[in-house]
Design brief:
Helix content of chain B: 40-55%
CATH superfamily of the largest domain in chain A: Periplasmic binding protein-like II
Distance between the termini of chain B: 58 Å
Number of strands of chain A: 10
Strand order of the largest sheet of chain A: 4-1-5-10-6-9-7-8
CATH architecture of one domain in chain B: 3-Layer(aba) Sandwich
CATH superfamily of one domain in chain B: Periplasmic binding protein-like II
Protein name (chain A): ABC transporter substrate-binding protein
Shape of chain A: globular
Structural class of chain B: alpha+beta
Largest interface: A-B, 38 and 49 residues
CATH topology of the largest domain in chain A: D-Maltodextrin-Binding Protein, domain 2
Structural class of chain A: alpha/beta
Order of helices and strands of chain A: HEEEHEHEHEEHEHEHEHH
Keywords (chain A): Signal
Distance between the termini of chain A: 68 Å
Number of strands of chain B: 14
Radius of gyration of chain B: 25 Å
Shape of chain B: globular
Largest sheet of chain B: 8 strands, mixed
CATH topology of one domain in chain B: D-Maltodextrin-Binding Protein, domain 2
Largest sheet of chain A: 8 strands, mixed
Oligomer: heterodimer
CATH architecture of the largest domain in chain A: 3-Layer(aba) Sandwich
Strand content of chain B: 5-15%
Organism (chain A): Shewanella holmiensis
Number of helices of chain A: 9
Strand content of chain A: 25-35%
Radius of gyration of chain A: 21 Å
């Protein structure tokens, strides 16, 4: 009898643990000013505010962890109830995750250290140049796939220095974060030579995210767009097209 | 710019010229005048004959237009675009040769001609669809126009979010409509209309799914004799799936190697990727004979297995009158999976863009259907599939059909990448993009574009002497497009009410059938149930849309399977393989 009680208690504990972990999502983001940054226990940025609003709207619990992008993507691919954001959604990545989005829209530009460098008419004009990007970046993957010479760093800030020192010809970066990185490093390359790509960024979750959770999050996101919240949030962080 | 950098970029003279001229401009992103200013602007006539840059004229050869006509047409663009000069617009399309040419060469030509700077972005077709959907959801002006497959026409006309081509043609009394646009010359316009005849999209490029085979191997007397001895009929263009299967086995197992190289009787692709879904939804089910007779798509059941009644989708599963999990669909998926054993091992890990070029290796005898957008990749000199004279050792022909297929049904798939405009685009930007769209499909441009990407859109190009001379080098592509077959190979039709979301179900379930998680029957049952659930959801949310889903009640499958047409009952008939010589096989195109 004692054995059966023990077994029941054990099963119940395992069940409640499973339910709790199923309800609470682990959200992984990465440092990318001004979208997400962590100083001590304080997390801030567009992504942090967005997550809070989305999960309140959906009535779901979450925790946010900071990891490098590449690692975050791998964790969301291998661990259930785990998501990573903001991720550039593209055809190559489509089948590896369940997607909630669009979360953000980013424009990407090509920056040059040389003020005399004239604007480029098309991306193809940079076909034989070296272009800096960072590991895990969708734009880096995009340029590589199209045959461009892409030089990858661990984080985007390093590209600013590389461009300044002439180790790369161009730097391909999201316009808003490029502005913030240049400001933080007191370097100013001016306007991009071409704005060549628009990316839809989304939250990429483990492929087996329950359909009910997926629906709650997508419905909540729709509500945030309809209420005007998303437009206000984007505007607050200088994301206007 | 450092000179070394210039050299590194290998800028061609016209590009260099453009960059130099750009440097003299203050900003290429200068906002264009608003549409109100445009309306007030008295547009000069075509008679304003300022010079067209010489490199553009040289680039756009040949053309079906005379030199004077081409000059006049280009002048029209120059003058009509005047109010928009300095504007930067964004368009996006999938990544195939035709669009690469547009993005890298024609966008520059348009810029030099008009001063409108076009960022013509290339990406995967699935990304194009996601971006189009995102613009609808967010309301943000992400792009000013999309080149989007006409497979979405069913979504577009129900969405209420599209500025139709019919509207653009008549905007401001047709002020921005190219006088020589000649809509009747477009071969794919019937694919881009809604059930009521309104034109939603304008074709920019078209390619078809055709049977591909090594004509040199098929004409080899030794192989012919061996095949006849083993299978009891002539080696030729297969007319049914049994013949295709026999030929696949013959080359993969019986012949096995040619001149020391391992050869295969079948090629396909099956990587988990959105393109896996398109492989099946585009053509496998239609060729098997899943749907009903009717063009461009079966009525009342189309090749997605969706039944419509008075333009309302009513279900995809057999229990609701659809055919997505019908015996014909199961048969199609069984053959798709079984035949992978005749393909190279790599096939299971290839996607659409990777597999299309695989035939160039010279190891494949036949492919049940192959996207003709890759003609350019298989006609390059020095390939194992091209002879010393530049003549392909391969041909395209009508694809063989499955045992559920009947006369009057579509015979294959045709992709019609088409200009699509969203209502939430600012009007001045939309009109500038409309001008660019018309430039890319104009008679000044279209023949040259056809020769670069082999994705014809105009009858006048197809009937030109230039294409007659080119035809021996294209393996039968010209013969296909000059025949009535171009109307029988059709895209996904207007029955599919939410292509962006429903397309994702295909690869999800088909991949689980390929990897053995589900049998074809189990996978299709689950898939059909998912499609029905989605249609039922749309029935709730599309309340104000015309032709919204109205779900049929669930009935016993035997009810629907005993009705005439699709869904068709199990066909256990054993079919004998049948082949025809190439000349006879292509007669069905006339």
């Amino acid at each position: 009898m004692f054995g059966i009680k023990f077994l029941l208690i054990g099963l119940l504990s395992m069940y409640s643990l499973a339910v709790c972990s199923a309800d609470k999502l682990t959200l992984i983001t990465y440092s990318e000013v001004p979208f997400a940054a962590q100083a001590g226990n304080t997390k801030q940025g567009l992504v942090i505010e967005f997550i809070d609003a989305l999960f309140k709207q959906a009535g779901l619990e979450y925790e946010i962890l900071f990891f490098p992008l590449k690692r975050g993507m791998s964790m969301a691919e291998s661990s259930v109830n785990t998501c990573v954001l903001p991720i550039e959604r593209n055809q190559h990545r489509e089948v590896h995750y369940t997607w909630i989005g669009p979360v953000m829209v980013s424009r990407y530009g090509i920056f040059s250290a040389s003020p005399s460098q004239p604007p480029l008419v098309s991306l193809n004009d940079a076909k034989f140049a070296s272009i800096g990007s960072f590991l895990g970046s969708g734009i880096g993957e995009y340029l590589t796939q199209f045959g461009y010479q892409v030089d990858l760093t661990n984080n985007d800030t390093l590209n600013v220095k590389k461009l300044q020192r002439g180790r790369i010809d161009f730097w391909a970066a999201d316009l808003v974060s490029a502005k913030a990185i240049m400001r933080d490093n007191d370097i100013h390359f001016g306007e991009p030579k071409i704005v060549f790509f628009t990316s839809i960024r989304a939250m990429a979750c483990h492929i087996d995210l329950p359909m009910a959770t997926q629906k709650r999050l997508n419905d909540a996101l729709q509500a945030l767009y309809k209420s005007g919240y998303m437009a206000q949030l984007h505007q607050k962080y200088g994301l206007s097209l | 710019m450092k000179l070394s950098l210039l050299k590194k970029f290998k800028l061609c003279p016209p590009i260099f010229g453009v960059i130099i001229s750009l440097s003299a401009q203050a900003q290429i992103n200068t906002p264009a005048p608003k549409i109100s200013q445009v309306i007030d602007h008295k547009l000069t006539s075509v008679a304003d004959n300022t010079a067209i840059p010489k490199w553009i004229i040289q680039e756009l050869q040949p053309s079906t237009l005379s030199s004077d006509e081409q000059q006049q047409e280009l002048q029209w663009f120059k003058s009509q675009a005047e109010p928009f000069a300095g504007l930067t617009i964004r368009v996006v399309s999938e990544h195939i040769d035709t669009h690469v040419y547009e993005s890298e060469v024609l966008a520059k030509a348009f810029y030099d001609l008009t001063g409108i700077h076009v960022i013509h972005e290339l990406t995967g077709e699935d990304d194009v669809i996601k971006k189009l959907s995102a613009q609808m959801v967010t309301g943000l002006n992400l792009y000013d126009a999309y080149i989007n497959d006409s497979d979405l026409v069913g979504s577009h006309f129900r969405s209420g979010a599209i500025t139709t081509i019919s509207e653009l043609l008549t905007f401001k009394s047709g002020q921005y409509t190219l006088p020589t646009l000649d809509l009747n010359d477009f071969i794919g316009l019937q694919f881009t209309r809604d059930p009521f005849g309104v034109i939603y999209q304008l074709p920019d490029q078209q390619f078809a799914n055709l049977y591909w085979y090594r004509s040199d191997w098929f004409e080899n007397p030794s192989y012919k004799a061996q095949f006849k001895q083993q299978y009891g009929y002539e080696l030729g263009v297969p007319q049914n799936w049994q013949a295709y299967e026999d030929i696949a086995r013959f080359f993969s197992d019986d012949i096995n190697t040619i001149e020391g190289v391992r050869v295969y009787g079948h090629m396909d692709y099956a990587a988990i990727d959105p393109s896996l879904g398109w492989r099946i939804s585009d053509a496998w089910l239609s060729m098997a004979g899943v749907g009903d007779a009717g063009l461009p798509n079966g009525l009342p059941v189309d090749e997605w297995g969706i039944r419509v009644e008075n333009c309302h989708p009513v279900g995809a599963s057999v229990s609701r009158g659809g055919a997505l999990n019908s015996p014909a669909a199961v048969y199609a998926l069984e053959k798709y999976v079984d035949w992978l054993e005749y393909a190279p091992d790599e096939a299971k890990s290839l996607t659409f863009s990777e597999a299309g070029k695989w035939l160039a290796t010279g190891k494949i005898a036949q492919q049940i259907f192959w996207y003709s957008a890759f003609v350019g990749d298989l006609t390059q000199p020095n390939l194992p599939v091209v002879d010393d004279q530049g003549i392909p050792k391969w041909k395209v022909a009508p694809s063989p059909v499955g045992k559920y297929w009947q006369k009057g049904m579509k015979s294959g798939y045709q992709d019609a990448g088409s200009w699509t405009f969203l209502k939430n685009t600012p009007k001045d930007r939309q009109i500038a993009a409309w001008l660019y769209a018309q430039f890319l499909v104009s008679k000044s441009v279209s023949l040259k574009k056809t020769l670069v990407g082999f994705t014809p859109i105009r009858l006048s190009d197809l009937e030109s002497d230039v294409m007659t001379k080119k035809s021996p080098y294209l393996g039968g592509l010209v013969e296909f497009y000059r025949s009535n077959a171009r109307n029988v190979w059709t895209p996904t039709g207007s029955n599919v009410p939410d292509y962006p979301n429903m397309a994702g179900f295909w690869w999800l379930y088909v991949s689980k059938i390929v990897d053995g998680t589900y049998s074809p029957k189990q996978g299709l049952d689950a898939f059909a149930a998912r499609v029905d659930a989605h249609l039922a959801q749309l029935e709730q949310t599309m309340v104000n849309s015309q032709c919204a889903p109205k779900m049929n009640p669930i009935k016993d499958e035997s009810f629907w399977l005993s009705q005439p047409g699709s869904p068709k009952p199990l066909n256990q008939q054993v079919i004998k393989g049948q082949t025809l010589p190439y000349e006879e096989a292509i007669r069905v195109w006339n």
